[in-house]
Amino acid sequence: MSAAQLRWLAGEGLVRTFARPSGYGVSFCAVCGSPAPDPNTSRTRYGIPAGLIEGGNTLRVTDHIFVDSKAPWESIADDAPQFDMFPPA
Fold first, then answer.
1. 88 has pLDDT over 70
2. Where are the domains of the chain?
3. CA 51 → CA 24, 39, 46, 68, 77, distances in Å?
4. What digits encode the pLDDT tens for the residues 28-80?
5. Cα–Cα distances in Å, from 14 out to 8, 27, 63?
6. Residue 56: what pLDDT?
């Protein structure tokens, strides 16, 4: 999701990020530890854990990423686009 599309309803000030020296990190709530929207390093896009989205029962798969490293037994059974890396912006 682009940063411009994200609208916080509550708790933005409680988000903490743990970042490894590699640059990979994870964002979480400082109070309860729940996953939180995770910005990329330039803060232009956010990864949103699906369980955080109100009305999440209407979510649908739009694409599959990192398919070149999926487990051999994993089967992708829909026609959503597949990418070996992140999809083009």
1. yes
2. 3-52, 59-89
3. 21, 17, 14, 26, 22
4. 999 998 888 887 767 777 788 877 777 767 778 888 999 999 999 999 999 99
5. 12, 10, 30
6. 64
List, in sequence order, every residue forming a beta bridge with 19; answer none if it has no partner: 25
Checking 40-44 for CB contacts under 8 A at 24+ apart, the result is 43/3, 44/2, 44/3
Nearest to 1 by CA among 33, 38, 36: 38
Do residues 26 and 17 lie in contact, with contact meaning Cβ atoms separated by under 8 Å?
Answer: yes
Residue entry with tokens 């599959």:
64
Amino acid identity, position 43: R
**Number of Cβ atoms within 10 Å of the Cβ of 85:** 10
CA 60 to chain centre: 14
| Token pair recorded at residue 25 | 């990190």
Mapping DSSP to helix (H, G, I), strand (E, B) and coil, where does residue 35 land? strand
